[in-house]
Design a protein that fits this description.
By secondary structure, the protein is of the alpha+beta class. Helix content is about 65%, strand content about 10%. Helix 4 runs antiparallel to helix 5. The structure holds adenosine-5'-triphosphate and magnesium ion (MG).
């Protein structure tokens, strides 16, 4: 039984009980009638507390209806004689409505307080989320600051190694002139020169990487770039038991882009797809163009990405892999945006992920900096 119905039944039964006491008790026991008369206040108070103004008033009216015939028919209905009893009926109604009104106000106030408390709790929760996010961003900034300082130090070191290397090579060449080919010392000095050269290449390569490189914007065939990506990953896909294929690339599209960087971006996406896909799954690359844009879709049948993870995948250093660096997608996004394009990730948990690279088709002037 629902609590409200139970309460109504309880009130009804108690009014009926008190009324029966009145009707069945002989009139000469008037002191008992005086007591029963006060019993009526009990259901009236309860109704007012439980159901507010309307409940209190309804209950006092019901009590009046139940009690009035007893005064009229059993006590004779003499107005002057039974004045006190009629006054009691008025009191029931005043008491029921005033108590109901006060109880109702109190209930409304406590509901208002509850709503305020709930609002405060929500705000606190939001504040906690925001402060967690700020802490995470601060941590990320600290890490990238450390990394960029390390990178600068390594570049200075490489630069300082290059100069003595030039001197070592120069003096070795002078020494070599003192010996004839075939002489063991000549061979040793040759090795020394070759190894110095190799070291020089390593340093040169590193410095080239550390320096921001100017973009080499040129015409490139989208199909060729994608075929290269498939060839590069075919072996890995085979080993994992995944079908990696280009699909429906009928007409070729020529893009004005830095081919090397674009390949790097595509490679990051395909590697992620292969890593997320279980054996027996597939990674399919399709492309379609309409008007000024070209959409390249990398669709995998892998684990998918949860909503929480999806919000963070473009953050540098965010990874869910034990040996990941978390840089793949943030670098990819930068490359695609530098080409005037955009990157969209659609995913469904347990069904797979589709990464859509949208690139503009119109030609751009030479010398941009992707
Ligand atoms: N195709 C995908 N399917 C499921 N999750 C993906 C997919 N691509 C990216 N992710 C999620 O996004 C995260 C970030 O990817 P990102 O390429 O930036 O870093 P990573 O792959 O973890 O590390 P790294 O690329 O540096 O080795 C991944 O750790 C993974 O949780
Ligand atoms: Mg990756």
């Amino acid at each position: 039984m629902k609590p409200n119905i139970f309460r109504i039944v309880l009130l009804g039964v108690s009014i009926l009980g008190i009324s029966l006491l009145h009707y069945l008790t002989p009139l000469h026991l008037h002191y008992l009638h005086d007591i029963f008369q006060r019993f009526y206040y009990l259901p009236i108070v309860l109704a007012a507390l439980w159901f507010g103004f309307r409940g209190g008033l309804a209950c006092s009216l019901l009590v009046s209806i139940a009690y009035a015939p007893h005064i009229l028919f059993q006590w004779g209905g003499n107005l002057t004689m039974e004045m006190e009893k009629y006054l009691e009926i008025v009191m029931y109604n005043v008491f029921g409505s005033v108590t109901g009104l006060l109880a109702q106000r109190e209930q409304e106030r406590s509901q208002e307080l509850q709503r305020t408390a709930q609002g405060l709790e929500d705000s606190l929760h939001k504040l906690q989320l925001q402060s967690d996010r700020i802490i995470a961003i601060e941590e990320q900034l600290r890490r990238s600051e450390k990394l960029s300082t390390l990178g600068e130090m390594a570049a200075v070191l490489a630069h300082e190694i290059r100069n003595p290397l030039g001197s070592i090579r120069g003096t070795a060449e002078i020494l070599r002139d003192d010996y004839q080919p075939g002489d063991p010392k000549y061979e040793f000095i040759e090795i020394q020169i070759k190894e110095t050269e190799r070291l020089n290449h390593v340093v040169e390569d590193f410095l080239r990487m550390a320096r921001p490189q100017a973009a080499k914007m040129q015409r490139c065939s989208l199909r060729e770039e994608l075929e290269t990506i498939v060839t590069l990953n075919a072996n890995d896909a085979d080993k994992r038991g995944i079908r990696l294929a280009l699909d429906g690339l009928r007409d070729d599209i020529q893009l004005l882009a830095d081919g090397e960087k674009l390949r790097q971006a595509f490679l990051n996406i395909v590697i992620n797809a292969l890593q997320a896909t279980p054996s027996g799954g597939s990674v399919t690359i399709t492309s379609e163009h309409s008007g000024e844009n070209c959409d390249i879709r990398f669709r995998d049948t892998g684990s998918g990405i949860s909503n929480d993870t999806r919000e963070r995948i473009f953050e540098p250093f965010f990874t869910t892999k034990p040996d990941g660096t978390g840089l793949g997608l943030s670098v990819t996004k930068k490359i695609i945006e530098a080409h005037g394009g955009s990157l969209i990730v659609e995913s469904e948990m347990g069904r797979g992920t589709t990464v859509v690279v949208c690139l503009p088709l119109q030609e751009k002037p030479e010398g941009g900096t992707p």
